[in-house]
Amino acid sequence: MRGPLVNKLSLIFGPRPPLNCILLCLVSVCVLIALLSSFSSTTFDSVTSYAKPDVYTNYRKLKEQARNDYLELKSISLGANLIKDVGLCGKERENYVPCYNVSANLLAGLKDGEEFDRHCELSQEHQNCLVRPPKEYKIPLTWPAGRDVIWSGNVKLTKDQFLSSGSMTKRLMLLEENQIAFHSEDGMIVDGVKDYSHLIADMIGLGSDTEFLQAGVRSVLDIGCGFGSFGAHLLSLRLMALCVAPYEPSGSQVQLALERGLPAVIGNFISKQLPFPSLSYDMVHCAQCGIIWDSKDGLFLIEIDRLLKPGGYFVLTSPTTQQQDSTTSTKKGITSSSLEGFTKKLCWSLLAQQEETFIWQKTADSQCYTSSSQDEIPVCKGNDMQMYYQPLARCISGTTSHRWVPIHSKSDHLNSTELEIHGLHPDDFFEDSNFWKLALRNYWSLLSPLIFSDHPKRPGDDDPLPPYNMVRNVMDMNAHYGGLSAALMEARKAVWVMNVVPLGARNTLPLIHDRGFAGVLHNWCEPFPTYPRTYDLLHANGLLSHIASQKCSMFELLLEMDRILRPEGWIILSDTLGTIEKARTLAAQIRWEARVIDLQNGSDQRLLVCQKPFVRK
């Protein structure tokens, strides 16, 4: 692909400009650069240090454009064929999610639902190509409109699938010619979501669902979230509600939720644990999620117990009560009685039941599991914090952990005692927090002029406000303590963050969950469990060096980043100079627009800021 400067040169010199003309232009630009350099020692590839957050001025933008013109002329003189662009994948891969190959899993002998689970070790589908968007794909609407209206061409959901869905889905969605509209949260349309949320609050003894935070409920795992309307409501209450649902080749709950800009990830515990540590969530919710909870001798309920924090809630809306025939009461009785035996073994108490909705509360007393009456389910041995798709275990987790703190006893911010549980000194934590506050100011100052100057069709003054409504979600691919997520929240950006802790690095995921943030453990030598085009901004500090130490391919990682990033989305990579230069070369092959930024702090660290183009074919 040729830039605007190349097109202008083609009009002047023709499609094949003479070599002497090119060299003349190159020499002229070099002289211009030398003159500019005499005025400032920070002409190109530089931003101010983190102590000075105003990164870009109009003068810097002019110098950046001059630098880009120079590099473009240089590429012409060297020849465009030296770097070959990566080709596009076929149409069949428009919604491709690696590691979920049902046919390969069946051939490997997997059955009883395991064929639908994640098996990267069986996937041999490596193709070095870019997953292209569907022909009808459009850039998502900005928030908050994009939360309630999405383009139907952006997701794989047919009209027949919509019409064959249940009554709850039809109440929450309106399928128009090229859009899918979800009922708003303004109270004008009664779609049942607000009433349902108020019902849950009332059943656990609260006056309103606005009191969830006061009751210690900050994080919710929504299993089988439908199309995310309940999670969207909880997000409006400042709760972190993460949707987790199985992989679906079409009509995916996770894909629809992410397209709305809501937190979601592919996950299924048919045979394996979810990639979260023990004691991660204040509430786990299942409304007609399709799981038979009393199957496999209660293994699914044991996994819920592992994920719940002490005093946390399990909310179950059972589909068996939706029947209207004579078997309704019988089915309800079977569900209630069978779950009662398991929940007692787990030291859960049934708080309330109203029609089809049940709410249990996990005990806050860790000694309950070691009493003589609880010997049917043993306590797990060893450290269970580093869980990465391990087999479901029939044992109780977390009872000996220092993180065993009831949810109603937790404060909004971690105190020094809680930080020490995670091996952190309060001064180090404070320093990390300040670093990310300043880094965020630089990021936003950096992206604002780039977004608006690169896209003049979008409104904005010469130095516009940060593009908070153009970035709905961020994936922090090497999240450390979750400092970027905390900085975004403190700055009141309308953004949520998926915090990813790489396998092999220090496992800070328990700390991230204790802060009330969304996060998963992931091996970046493998693809991430999400659909294509689901994130607006990818951030990675030190990840490239980490995967090199793990003997993994940087090129395959960048291809995976391209898959999960939406067109016109942004990438911010921070690493050592040599690593960043290598990534910049690869970024050119992937067709990203890339710029190296010198932090000007005397270190070997550099930023690589990239944008994914909207490639059509």
Automatic annotation (TrEMBL):
Keywords of the record: Glycoprotein, Membrane, Methyltransferase, Signal-anchor, Transferase, Transmembrane, Transmembrane helix
Enzymatic class: transferase
Record flagged with keyword Membrane: yes
Positions of transmembrane segments: 21-39
Single GO cellular component term: cytoplasm
GO BP terms, alphabetized: methylation
Localization (cell): Endomembrane system; Membrane
Pfam families (UniProt xref): Methyltransf_29
GO molecular function per UniProt: methyltransferase activity
Listed InterPro entries: Put_SAM_MeTrfase, SAM-dependent_MTases_sf
Main location: membrane
PANTHER family on file: METHYLTRANSFERASE, SAM-DEPENDENT METHYLTRANSFERASE
Family: Belongs to the methyltransferase superfamily.
Record protein name field: Methyltransferase
Lineage: Eukaryota, Viridiplantae, Streptophyta, Embryophyta, Tracheophyta
Gene: LOC102601490
